[in-house]
Specification:
22% strand; transferase; 38% helix; purine biosynthesis; 7-stranded mixed sheet; Rossmann fold; alpha/beta
Length: 199
């Protein structure tokens, strides 16, 4: 059984989807802890499912590195097989990425390498493209630059706003995340091999 830690910043909709999936007896992974960088609404999902949680508020630390060390210390307690960034709106310090990668994955609301960064949906609309997408990647030292594990296109419709487009991307993101975690747990996806493969 693959053990998973999930890190969030907001409502935790991807976390909720993963918890629902993992509640099935035949799903080969279990969320063992949920962490957040603030008092996030999504922590309520962990409470509902009886999953332990922790908070390491970013604003309580003088530097990103100090925050990252405490976040890392909390993760070490649980020794998860996989760490999932699920809407964590902070760049992880290099030391933390190097400790957990490639067992460190993230979802992104764009068809990478198109529109990386915190405003992928807004940037896609601003560029006037007819389609964008969702991706699941291994986290590396860059901004949404790691190896791509799964992705799918999502059309941009006439009249789309950032909100309406994002709402259509989210279900795709959730589905890709759940399937990626399942594949990792089932041994169908080798993160180490993916991360070391030439791009």
């Amino acid at each position: 059984m693959l053990t998973v830690a999930v890190l969030i910043s907001g409502t935790g909709s991807n976390l909720r989807a993963l918890l629902d999936a993992a509640a099935a007896a035949d799903f080969p992974a279990r969320v063992v802890v949920v962490g957040a960088d603030r008092d996030a609404d999504g922590l309520a999902h962990a409470e509902e499912f009886g999953i332990p949680s922790f908070t390491v508020p970013f604003t309580h630390y003088a530097t990103r590195e100090e925050w990252g060390r405490e976040l890392g210390a909390q993760l070490e307690v649980w020794q998860p097989d996989l760490v999932v960034l699920s809407g964590l709106m902070r760049l992880l310090p290099t030391e933390l990425v190097e400790r957990w990668a490639p067992q460190l994955i993230n979802t992104h609301p764009a068809y990478l390498p198109e529109f990386p960064g915190a405003h992928g949906v807004r940037d896609a609309l601003a560029a006037g493209v007819t389609e964008t997408g969702a991706s699941v990647i291994v986290v590396d030292g860059g901004v949404d630059t790691g190896p791509i594990l799964a992705q799918e296109r999502v059309p941009v419709l006439p009249g789309d706003t950032e909100h309406t487009l994002h709402e259509r991307i989210k279900p795709v993101e959730r589905r890709l995340l759940i399937e990626t975690v399942r594949q990792i747990a089932a041994g169908e996806l080798d993160l180490a091999a993916t991360a070391s493969a030439p791009s």
